[in-house]
Amino acid sequence: MNHQFNVAEDFLLDDSFLRFCIGVNEHDVAYWEKWISENPDKRPVFDQACRMFAIINGQQGKLDVEVNKFRTLLQQHIDTTAPEAAPNSSIRYMTRWRAAAAILLLAAGSAAWFYYSGKKVATSTRAAIAQNDVLPGGAKASLVLGDGTAVSLDSLNEQDLKEKDGTRIGNDNGKLVYDVSGTSGDKVTFNTLSTPRGGEYQLVLPDGSKVWLNAASSLRFPTRFTGADRTVVLTGEAYFEVAANATQPFQVQLNNGLKVAVLGTAFNVMAYDDEKTVNTTLVSGKVKVNQQNGNNVLLQPSEQAVLTKNNQQLQVSEADIDKAISWKMGTFEFDDDDLATVMRQLSRWYDVNVKFTGPVPDKHYTGSIRKQATLSQALQILKTAGVQFNIEGKQIIVEAK
């Protein structure tokens, strides 16, 4: 490759440079590190291209419309230029890809310099991080059966399980499915599905309700629902799509006494012990959030009930649905979130501890991070908020610049 680039756009229209920025190809990383060392006069424009890529990838600068167009075309470009793509398929997208990149660069240019003026993306730092990286989480969970037996699901492959009452439990590619068609007896058996930090899992309950369990969470539930209601107990975070049954309401019990009661709906509950609030976000249907003191609120779609733990105040506000369920869709979405909030989410997904050297930096972040990124790739975007970091084993050391 012979690159004689003079402006940032030249770099951003080059596939090899994009792979270098994302860090997905060791050959490209090595090539560009060597290239910039041999072309020091190109350092300013090279760094500008790196900064602009960070804006594009992280949706900085509130350029949501153009950024989303760019990201869509970028993914199409990557997909259609993969080795298995049809021979002529890349040509179809090339003009649109380059046009979108050029438009976005014009829009993002001033924002790039506003956010990053004077900040350099050091390739030596990038290489050091790559050698001490942490892979993203995945489908990991354990299941505690009715007799207390604990089963590691991520090492079980696709083997089915069976409870003593005849309930069959299918385990297929990160999802448990309960089949009660062969059950017998009157005794109700309870199971508990738990995800570690760095894990998530899907579950289809005996009534057909679907649950997505986020990292560091657990759900306790019966292997079949009997009685007046369908009650499950949640710690952590989960997204529910509840099978409708007007004669047997569905309830989510939280360990702080809060209850979420529904008939048939889709909603998200975030109730981590280390968060300051408990958030119930309604996507569709209708839910009632009940406190132990008798207070309750009824949510309509696109509303969120927020319980502040220190004063037990329960309030309803308009919800950012995309942000609330982004973890289920494969991304982290932030909107003016403080650094501590960002790091708590990353620590749960990458199963790492976070250490701040001195006071927590007063930094806020707006943007998105792909959950399939490695830890070093995810942390790179935090530099946009003026944060330095190092990965030491399973610990992130964070300090303000």
UniProtKB/TrEMBL annotation:
<keyword id="KW-0812">Transmembrane</keyword>
<dbReference type="InterPro" id="IPR006860">
    <property type="entry name" value="FecR"/>
</dbReference>
<dbReference type="InterPro" id="IPR012373">
    <property type="entry name" value="Ferrdict_sens_TM"/>
</dbReference>
<keyword id="KW-0472">Membrane</keyword>
<feature type="domain" description="FecR protein">
    <location>
        <begin position="192"/>
        <end position="288"/>
    </location>
</feature>
<dbReference type="Pfam" id="PF16344">
    <property type="entry name" value="FecR_C"/>
</dbReference>
<feature type="transmembrane region" description="Helical">
    <location>
        <begin position="97"/>
        <end position="116"/>
    </location>
</feature>
<feature type="domain" description="Protein FecR C-terminal">
    <location>
        <begin position="332"/>
        <end position="398"/>
    </location>
</feature>
<dbReference type="InterPro" id="IPR032508">
    <property type="entry name" value="FecR_C"/>
</dbReference>
<protein>
    <submittedName>
        <fullName>FecR family protein</fullName>
    </submittedName>
</protein>
<dbReference type="Pfam" id="PF04773">
    <property type="entry name" value="FecR"/>
</dbReference>
<keyword id="KW-1133">Transmembrane helix</keyword>
<dbReference type="GO" id="GO:0016989">
    <property type="term" value="F:sigma factor antagonist activity"/>
</dbReference>
